[in-house]
Design brief:
The strands form six sheets. Strands 3, 4, 6 and 7 form a four-stranded antiparallel β-sheet that branches. The N and C termini lie far apart (60 Å). The chain is 23% helix and 17% strand. It folds into two domains: 55 residues, no CATH class; 290 residues, Alpha-Beta Complex (Creatine Amidinohydrolase), CATH 3.90.230.10. Strand 13 and strand 14 form a beta hairpin. It is of the alpha+beta class. InterPro entries: Creatinase/aminopeptidase-like, Pept_M24, Pept_M24_MAP, Pept_M24A_MAP1, Zfn-C6H2.
């Protein structure tokens, strides 16, 4: 008998190990999905993460436009699909989205490629998969390919190109490597890559907005190849104006350092919860905040699995690092508030105050004596760190992340 079937029904709440009660999510009940929580408080606390499964209620959301849209530009045919939405910042979606890009049938597809539903078996939140030599080899290969695809996309970043063009590049680069872009149709995500501009924290949908000199852009690439997933992202400066903005640089470089400092702590026996303490301490030293809604995750044959890896301090993450486990750390850091809101597309997460956000991510393998960064940068990788300006130019922050006296 399947091991999961022998387990009592567990609460799917965020970082919750309790058994579920008879309290059912009303939206899931409408959808015919059996989802039960241990308590009302746990349900409320987990809502931001849990609601993502509700996207499947309307798989045509990204194919047809809403009933109320802005006026269509007569020259370009573009429009804002959510003109009445109270956007938190200056960024606006530029629709219509391009047609769905197809992957050849000869390339193996994940289970959600047809209906958008990742049908993962139930596992306990502290049940982490330990890979054997064959699994590790599979992860090394897909992560190397993922790095190659990100670098190809990053090389195209410049003022004047659209995020839809970046999506096209990623899509074609995946096909060239006999890989499927993992985000495509995952819970009905309409594109092959996430492109998050300025105040977008994560899950930005590529569209026809033209990148401007002074923007910052996060590109989040994930590949599925020979049964394994690789996942990484970086934030890039768009044009010289972006690098000349002290707050841009403080934000982007501190986020990069947060990831580096947390990775340096990875080794067998280290608590998963420790990474959030390291990240938040460094972010706060630069007067920045840490997003709490989204976290890193286990990754292997499953796109997202145990463990959850929070990036904020004093979290209640379960488990310790063990040799053979693979997971991501992907801190999202903000100039202003850490709180987020989601656009009506049900994907684009933005800062609640409209200030900018940056993110970096690597897929990691815990080794017998430390860590292997499976998605590590190559000598030829575009982007890379630059110096943080003096404190007088960066709202009192400290150059290059040095501790305050």
């Amino acid at each position: 008998m399947d091991q999961a079937a022998e387990q009592p029904r567990k609460c799917p709440g965020l970082e919750c190990e309790n058994d579920a009660s008879t309290l059912q999510c009303p939206k899931c009940k409408e959808m015919g999905v059996d989802t039960f929580f241990c308590s009302q408080d746990c349900f409320k606390r987990s809502w931001a993460q849990h609601k993502t499964i509700h996207k499947s209620t309307n798989p045509l959301r990204n194919l047809f436009t809403p009933s109320i849209v802005s006026k269509v530009d007569p020259e370009s045919g573009h429009f804002n699909p959510f003109p009445t939405y109270p956007f938190t910042g200056t960024l606006r979606p530029v629709y219509p989205l391009s047609e769905k890009r197809e992957i050849p049938k000869s390339i193996p597809h994940p289970e959600w490629s047809q209906d958008g539903m990742p049908r993962y078996p139930y596992v306990k939140k502290n049940q982490v998969q330990i890979l054997d030599a064959k699994g590790i080899a599979g992860m090394r290969k897909v992560c190397r390919l993922s790095r190659e695809v990100l670098d190809v996309a990053a090389a195209a970043v410049k003022p004047g190109v659209t995020t839809d063009y970046i999506d096209k590049i990623v899509h074609e680069a995946c096909i060239e490597r006999n890989a499927y872009p993992s985000p495509l149709n995952y819970n009905h995500f309409p594109k092959s890559v996430c492109t998050s501009v300025n105040e977008v924290i994560c899950h930005g949908i590529p569209d026809h907005r033209v990148l401007q000199d002074g923007d910052i852009l996060n590109i989040d690439v994930s590949l599925y190849h020979e049964g394994f997933h690789g996942d990484l992202n970086e934030t890039y400066y768009v044009g010289d104006k972006a690098k000349a903005d002290p707050d841009n640089v403080r934000l982007v470089e501190t986020t990069r350092q947060c990831l580096e400092k947390s990775i340096a702590h990875v080794k067998p026996g280290v608590k998963i919860g420790d990474f959030g303490d390291i990240i938040e301490k460094h972010a706060k030293s630069q007067n920045l905040s840490v997003v709490k809604t989204y976290c890193g995750h286990g990754i292997n044959q499953l796109f997202h699995c145990a463990p959850n890896v929070p990036h904020y301090a004093k979290n209640k993450a379960v488990g310790k690092c063990r040799p053979g486990m693979t997971f991501t750390i992907e801190p999202m850091i903000c100039l202003g508030t850490y709180k987020d809101k989601t656009w009506p597309d049900d994907w684009t997460a933005v800062t609640a105050d409209g200030t900018r956000s940056a993110q970096f991510e690597h897929t990691l393998l815990v080794t017998e004596d430390g860590v292997e960064v499976l998605t590590a940068r190559l000598p030829t990788s575009p982007g890379g760190p630059i110096d943080i300006p003096p404190a007088s130019a960066t709202n009192g922050a400290v150059p290059n992340g040095e501790a305050k006296a």
